[in-house]
Amino acid sequence: MKNRKVIWRAATVTEARWETPTARTLVLDIPDWPGHLAGQHVDIRLTAEDGYQAQRSYSIASAWSPAAARTASDDETASDRGTVEISVQRLEDGEVSPYLTDVVEAGDQIEVRGPIGGWFVWRPEATAPVVLVAGGSGMVPLMAMIRARGLAGGRQPFRLIYSVRTPADALYADELRRRAVSDPGLDVRFVYTRETPEGWPVPPKRIDVATINSYGWPADFAPDCFVCGPNTFVETAADILVALGHDPKLIRTERFGGA
Predict the structure, then answer these.
(1) Cβ distance 228 to 134 under 8 Å?
(2) 10-residue stretch averages of pLDDT, the chain, 259 residues long
(3) Of 23, 192, 26, nearest in space to 91 by CA
(4) What does the pLDDT look like over 60-95, one tens digit per residue?
(5) Which domain holds residue 231?
(6) Cα–Cα distance measured from residue 258 to residue 239, given in angstroms and rounded to the nearest whole number
(7) Parallel/antiparallel/unpaired status of strands 224-230 and 251-256
(8) Whole-number pLDDT of residue 31
(9) pLDDT at residue 233, rounded to an integer
(10) Which residues pair with 67 in a beta bridge?
C-alpha cells in the first residue's frame, strides 16, 4: 500500500443503516479499492447542482485489507469481508453529515478518496496489548481495529474504554457486547457522562485517572494506546495516560473539532 496515488472514485452505497438516532453506517462498494488498514479514513466529496463542493473526512469502520480478504471465512460479518463502511454522526450545522445520514439511500453514488493515514493504524501482526479510548463517534476507527483483530483471529488482549453521553448514543453497542462475551481477550467498558442505564452501578461521570487506571492496561505492560474523539476528550485522555506512566511514543491520537 506504499507509493500509491490516492484518487477519487465513485462509490455505490449498498446499504444504509442507523447505529443510533443520529448516526448512520453506510456500506460502500468502491471499484478497484486497494484495501485499507484499521484506523485509516476516507474523504467524501459532495457536489451540488451549481457546482459547489463540500468535502469531509470520515474514519473507516470496517476491518478489510487485501490480506484479510484472502482469509475471511463465511462466518464473518459483511464488515469483516471486503466492503468499506463509514459511520457518520449527524451535525446539525454540517454541510455533509446531514446529507449522508438523512438523504443518501442504497443505490446512490458518492465520491470517495482514500484510504488515507498511516500513523493512527493498528496492524494484526502487532503483538502488544492494546488500550482503546473512545469518545462518542471516535469509536469508529477503534471499531475497525476490534473487527480487524477478530477477523485475523488475533490473541492480542484488547481493552476498550468507551465514553458516551447516554446509552442511546453508543455506536455498535450490541456488536461490542456480543464480541466481548464470545472473546475473552476483549474487554469493553462503557462510561456514561449524562445518563446511565437503569441499575448502572456508578453515576454519570467523565473519564478520569481512576477510569483509565482501572480499565486500561498498566504502563509496565507497554501497551499500544489509541485515543479518538473530540479535541478536549483526546487531550484529557492522552494526558492521563502519560501521567500514569505510559510511553508517549506508544500513544496515538486522532481528534475532531466537534464536542
Answers:
(1) yes
(2) 75 95 95 91 93 94 63 44 84 92 95 95 96 97 96 95 97 96 96 96 95 96 97 97 98 79
(3) 23
(4) 999 865 544 444 444 444 444 457 999 999 998 889
(5) 130-256
(6) 19
(7) parallel
(8) 87
(9) 97
(10) none
What pLDDT shows up at residue 259?
36
Q: Could you give the CA distance from residue 160 to residue 233 in angstroms, rounded to a whole number?
A: 15
Q: Among 85, 116, 147, where does a domain finish? A: 116
Amino acid letter for position 42: V
Q: Are 145 and 178 in contact (CB under 8 A)?
A: no
Helix count and strand count (H, E) for the chain: 7, 11
Which segments of the chain does DSSP mark as H helices, in order? Answer: 66-71, 78-81, 97-102, 139-152, 173-182, 209-215, 231-243
CATH number for the domain that contains residue 46 = 2.40.30.10
Same-domain pairing of 89 and 194:
no
Domain count of the fold of the chain: 2
Residue 101's SS3 state is helix
Looking at residue 181, what is its pLDDT?
96
- For the chain, the residue count is 259
Q: Are residues 149 and 44 in the same domain?
A: no
In this structure, is residue 67 part of a structural domain?
Answer: yes
